[in-house]
Queue: 2 jobs
Job 1
Amino acid sequence: MSEIEYFYSAHSIFAYLGSARIQEIAKASGRNLVHRPIDLNQVVPAGGAASFKERTPKQRAYFFRREIDRWSEERNAPVMVGYPTHHYKDTALCNGMVIAGVVQGHNVDQLSHAMLQTHWLEDTDLADPDTLARLAESVDLAPRPLLDAAMSDEIQAIYQANTDEAIKRSVFGSPTYFADGDMFYGQDRLEMVERSLRQPYKPSGDPNMPPA
Amino acid sequence: MPEIEYFYSAHSAYAYLGSARFMAIDKAAGRTITHRPNDLRRLVPASGSTPFSERSKGHYAYYFRREIDRWAEERNAPVIVGRPTHHDKDMTLCNGMLIAGLVQDKNIDQLAHVMLESHWRDDSDLADRDTLVALARQVEMDPEPLLVAALSEEVQAIYEANTVEAIERSVFGSPAYFVDGDMFYGQDRLEMVERALRQPYAPSRTN
């Protein structure tokens, strides 16, 4: 089965806002969603984007409040008021848990969705093993094998490889979707992902356009 | 009649890609477009966005080629291969010409559209007077009064005021649309503009 590659982090707001929709699109097109969790703390600066903390108050007000709220309404994906308490904690464990699920042959769609949704709706702490255990149980996955593997060398090497590959392939942030090699950055491109699966966009003639 | 405020520059790729769609949305909603051409080269750095010259190669390939090409297909708005030859010229005259049209009480919707379209589809030089004359005639406007006023103090003061106000109101680039105070940045938000005209999005709650 052909696939859609999905680069994101389990704590990413825009991955959350697009989460139900990408899964629906993948399902409708008969594609396998290939989860590739990445370390956003490495990918965002490497992509040349300003880190969240470097953005101006006006940018934050627009991109991290107004846009979140409007898209939340648009996607029917409710968010909490304010910013998640535990948002700046290390994401190696939760992203590692998703990768462990993939390595152990599970479908991680629902686990990933539960992480994203509870972080942004219920203010969950995705660095806390008990919280993650509860989330796995809520989607009928046994938490232990996943949590035991999450920080292993094998899984963390995949996490780093995903991150390195994202940087190499010009991923700017989370979420980013690849449909047959064509990159779509942002959940606001999901309708274009859907269209592209039906009919790919024409290739670009001049990939090396000089600076504007 | 209520309005939609439209901040852009006459040479902007994304303003072009959204131009026909925006006008169709506006017309269907029975609103007036309030054109606010501004100086993008001052606006972009002032808004906190990374200046074009500092963006990475990957950024260019995505935002200034792949995105343009896909949206051109999506919006049925053809673009030239490569980058417009005259893209780095001074845009004071063409943006001033649009503002002169407003000051002289003309509807400039079509003039704005043909500037954007000819620059990105036909590689036109928007700093060239003869080109601007031909574009005005194409939309059945008398070019002379517009070009005479374009660089006047009155018109240039409005251009400056538009730029300052855009910066003040958090416009990050071109195009940006305001519907009843709600800002939508980018032509990729036009479907949300359309929805906001039908039913405004709920206000954001603060902490």
Note: Chain A is about 50% helix and 10% strand.
Job 2
Amino acid sequence: MNTLTTIEELGFAPALQQDVLEDRTSDHALLEATRSGDQDAFAELVSRYRNQITSYIYRMTNDYDGAVDLAQETFVRVYRAADRYQRSYAFSTYIYRIATNLAISELRKRKRRKLVSLTGFFQPSDGAEAREFNPPDLRPLQDSELVDTERRSAVQRAIGTLPEKYRAPLILRDVDGRSYDEIARILETSEGTVKSRISRARGFLREKMRAYL
Amino acid sequence: MRKNNCGVVRQELDELMMDETCSSSAAAHLSECGECREFQQQQTRLRQIVGSLGTVAAPADFDFRLRARLANDSSSAAYLSLMRRGFALATVLVVFATGAFLVRNVMDRPTTEVVSTNNQPAAIPEPTKQVEPAKASQDNTSGQQLVASNPEKRPKPSNNERPLSTASKTPRRLVAEDFSSKGAQVIRGQEAVSSFEVIPLDASLQSFKVSLDDGRGNARTISVPTISFGSERMLQTGNQFAPKRVW
């Protein structure tokens, strides 16, 4: 009869090691390492999410420089609040929630400042539904790439006219491709509300983009 | 019925992801309903356009700027923390110094300000007393200056004043003496006072001043205001709203 002398003979060691390795690369583990002072772990987190967060805020605010600034502020807040982070949600949900709050806060600041936008000249002053001034170009199209660029520009402007509560879920769903459940957690609302808002946002966009559909 | 179907199918189309296919019932409805088919085409096209926006890349110096910002924040936070600690320390020092100053002032207060009256107990005027004339005459043997019977200065009771108790039937006559026309009595301390003494002062109806000399030429004058009691005021003013001659 053979007797076991070491724990490795049980054959558990490789599986355990793999789990540990996988866990070390997870967002949670990287944030834990950041909390203990590992700067490289935080740099890894930044490299994972910088493009997503910058892009998301840019779609929300339609201002690239401001979006970069707010994306950096998002990471600064994550770094500062690393001690208070709880693993109840996915890290992506957590960081997107911070980014959303910052973007919405920026949009409200702009409203208070009453920035005059060029598209605002074509909006009715009586509080009625805003209409995008995008007359379709009926001339024969020369270059499909130019058309795509112009169309993207138009849809970006149209998204920019949506109210905040419709804009964020639409971008998270149709641009970032996130699930309803995750969007609901990011926006701290119910899934039904998210579905309803996305449906209404698409309805608004369909009206604004009718010339391009 | 068909409208209801359209609503259900459109909701289903709305909730689908781009790469998902609709259910068989929805597909059957789409093959029949032209409006829903058009809705589906527009919806698909719109989502393609929105999805084509894609991801915008962060600038190349994003990490560098973020590190600089974090370093700046941490240094400013450290500076603020240092400032807070310094302010707290300064506050503690100020409080401690103020306390020490006050304690020292109290400890260094000259004890000669209070003059001992052990040597001349008979010269100290006793506080004004409201005494009966008979008793007052007995107390006059100790050299008191007060207690001179003067029935004319007795305050007149107001109409609503309650009658005096008739149990003893003894006329209680209040007497007082005006010290304003007389010179103040001088009390001199003959030797250093080793401990504080309590000097009873006359509670006069008029204000007066007490001049103290510590024996080294330092004079100090204390002004004592008029001491009055609520009962006296009530006696003088009375209740104006009470009916006259009604007790």
Note: Chain A is about 65% helix and 0% strand.
